[in-house]
Amino acid sequence: MSTNESLNESLNASDPIFARRGEGTVSSRTSLEEDSMLPATAYQIVHDETMLDGNARLNLATFVGTWMDDHAIRLYNDSFQKNMIDKDEYPQTAAIEQTCWKMLGDLWHAPDLSTTIGCSTIGSSEACMLGGLALKRRWQEARRKDGKPTDRPNLVMSSAVQVCWEKFCNYWDVEPRLVPITEEHKTLDGHDLDKYVDENTIGVVSIMGVTYTGMYEPVRQVAEALDRIQEQTGLDIAIHVDGASGGMVAPFLQPDLEWDFRIERVHSISTSGHKYGLVYPGLGWVVWRDKQYLPESLIFYVSYLGGDMPTFALNFSRPGAQVLLQYYLFLRLGRKGYFEVQKASQDVALFLSKGIAELGPFELWNDGSDIPVFAWRLKDGYTDKWTLYNLQDRLRTRGWLVPAYPLPDDLADVTVQRIVVRNGLSMDLAALLLNDIKTQAQYLDGLEGPVPQEAQQSAFHH
């Protein structure tokens, strides 16, 4: 930089910030500017633009963590430059990753940690992809061994499955067989499962915390249905448990519920560290009950402390900081601390669901007694003036993001609204939210005529 340029930069720095180049003009949205700007000016522009986003703490649509304590933030700042895939450069971070998935294996009752295997991922979607790939590869290898074709694999799951499973089937040429949820069967509970599985079924997905409603699918019942199918047909079909949310709730709030590796048919479990694992995004985990269920053909080996470390994530370079944050929380909270955090969230969910059920317009779909998530709908025939989409929009004016959306397939004519209670939604804030729901419902009830109905825009993206 020349002397004159340096002088001009110094003079610009003393200008009022909103009069500086960059703040005083509209920047291009399609190409880089020729000149640089002061870091304080660039920061202010980005900071101000993101003020248009919603308040993350008031976003009750997302399962993803929006609060961590000051020590976690310090640790994040200390380690965000670490690349998880670079195990030679950051061997202790690699060792901590292994410590974390072994802790999860123990939490999920893996029968023998010396033969268990797992890894971290960017999120539970990648973890689900790896679980699905292992199911497909094992099915292919068994079919080839028996001299049978491998060109028509299918995966059986609920119609309320998270979209990552539909992506898996699309990306890896697997036929998705969706068992519809109904008023009678609100989750995949093993009912009529024999109509969906056959010799080409690579596995069944059970969800611990359905995204639409928060309900647990009864993994034990699904396993028992598959046991009966095996007795009748000889088909031995594995289960992958999508524990994106419930995998970090059930061990603490429902410790006697059998959904994990206590069920022999459960070969793998995935979860989100950045949901009820309480870490900032993005972090997921997947664990197999035994190495035999993760085909060797999916594993690559990298040099690590003079030896080989297995790696099988889909992503390559990715953050290591979130793994360290997970370890921090495992140390900081322990089982007692995780129980206290999840119980506090469940208490808030039950407080809110009880309060909403007592309001005239609504009836609950579930109450948040599984994971701290619940949904409700308008009572049949309650009003023709407004819908839950209108309530969603009214709550947004108060800063709350509470999504309304239709249920899948056979229940597509049922619209529900859902609240996800996370660490950071206090009982005090919940009381304010409940009052706002009551006030906005009363406002809508008081309208003289129906709200003009445009094309409804759901805020729900699972």
From TrEMBL:
Statement: the UniProt record of this protein carries the keyword Lipid metabolism: no
Molecular function via GO: glutamate decarboxylase activity
EC number: 4.1.1.15
A UniProt-annotated Pfam family: Pyridoxal_deC
Cofactor(s) demanded: pyridoxal 5'-phosphate
Record key words, sorted: Decarboxylase, Lyase, Pyridoxal phosphate
Keyword Isomerase: no
Catalysed reactions, as listed in the record: L-glutamate + H(+) = 4-aminobutanoate + CO2
Biased composition (Polar residues): 1-13
Region (Disordered): 1-32
Family statement drawn from the similarity comment of this UniProt entry: Belongs to the group II decarboxylase family.
The protein's name: Glutamate decarboxylase
Lineage: Bacteria, Bacillati, Actinomycetota, Actinomycetes, Micrococcales
